[in-house]
Amino acid sequence: MENWDDIRVFLAVARAESLSGAAPGLRMDPATLGRRVARLEERLGAALFVKSPQGYALTPRGERLAEHAGRAEAALARAAEAGTPERGLSGQIRIGAPDGCANFVLPQVCAAIQAENPDLELQILALPRVVNLSKREADMAVTVSPPEAGRLTVQKITDYRLSLAQRADAPVPTRLSDLGTRPLVGYIPDMIFDRELDYLGSLGAQGVPLASNSVSVQLQMLRHAGIGIVHDFALPFAPELRRVLTDELRLTRAFWLVRHAADRRSARLTRFAALLAAALRAEVARLEAECLTGTSAGRDG
């Protein structure tokens, strides 16, 4: 029977796909990790990784070990929870999210939850791509599309809305066809990582003169020039902008909460997921209501 500490090292390297990536979380140097992995492979009599300059990739034997070890890790976590009185939440939880949610909704939601659970450490992983839960990049993730594969559990959090917006002092377009005369702000087309983020078809546009893979950067671009599709919940953070052509174009998307299937039996993560989903739902509704309130102040065109 293998030492659990060796299995913990193996899992960290497997998830990071490199010694240097796993080292900080384990508080070990890469050379030590390399020796630990080599000793484990020697004891098992099998290669667990294919080593290359690009990193450490699991062999078929390594994949099987990672699957069983991940289940054991989850079982150990549940056992530890079972022996702990149910009080406030504690420990570290990492949430992956697209940067719109990560920048404009999650910070205040996480701050409120952590204030009620001072022993809880919350981390927000903001990425311009889908978070890889199978590699344990995060404990759970907010996504804009429900995943279609993987051993995951999915629940819908809430719908959210998006509108065309521009600087309040810019000429107001009267129809969508007027957009051809204005620089359009949006995603870099070949870096759109989810079909729900592809808005060009809704605009009838062929290109994006001002583009970024980040929602936050797009919002900063709009503060200077152009017109583009913006989350309604982000507009309270940009008072210089106003919505336009709301009768002609309004998009609805959804946030989904995605978790590892094995974590369904974790009371701690289940409690946190329920708190997170409810708080996200409430905060999106609050910010969108604040955006709508701006109508009387001339926010909409």
Description:
By secondary structure, this protein is α/β, with parallel strands linked by helices. It has two domains: 79 residues, Arc Repressor Mutant, subunit A; 214 residues, 3-Layer(aba) Sandwich (D-Maltodextrin-Binding Protein, domain 2), CATH 3.40.190. Helices cover 38% and strands 22% of the residues. Strands 3, 4, 5, 6, 7, 8, 9, 10 and 11 form a nine-stranded mixed beta sheet that branches. The chain is elongated. The N and C termini lie far apart (69 Å). The relative contact order is 0.14. One of its GO terms (biological process) is DNA-templated transcription. This is HTH-type transcriptional regulator GltR.
Tell me the overall shape.
elongated
Number of strand elements: 11
Number of domains: 2
Ranges with pLDDT <50 over ≥5 residues? 295-301
- Biggest sheet descriptor: 9 strands, mixed
Q: Per DSSP, what share of the residues sits in E-state strands of 2 or more residues?
A: 15-25%
Helix-strand category: alpha/beta
Q: Percent helix among the residues?
A: 25-40%
Please give the count of helices.
9
CATH topology of the largest domain: D-Maltodextrin-Binding Protein, domain 2
CATH class of the largest domain, named: Alpha Beta
Radius of gyration from CA coordinates = 23 Å
Q: Overall pLDDT, averaged?
A: 84
Order of helices and strands: HHHEEHEHHEEEEHEHEEEH
Tell me the distance between the termini: 69 Å
What CATH architecture label of the largest domain applies? 3-Layer(aba) Sandwich
Protein name: HTH-type transcriptional regulator GltR
GO molecular function: DNA-binding transcription factor activity; sequence-specific DNA binding
Keywords: DNA-binding, Transcription, Transcription regulation
GO biological process, one term: DNA-templated transcription
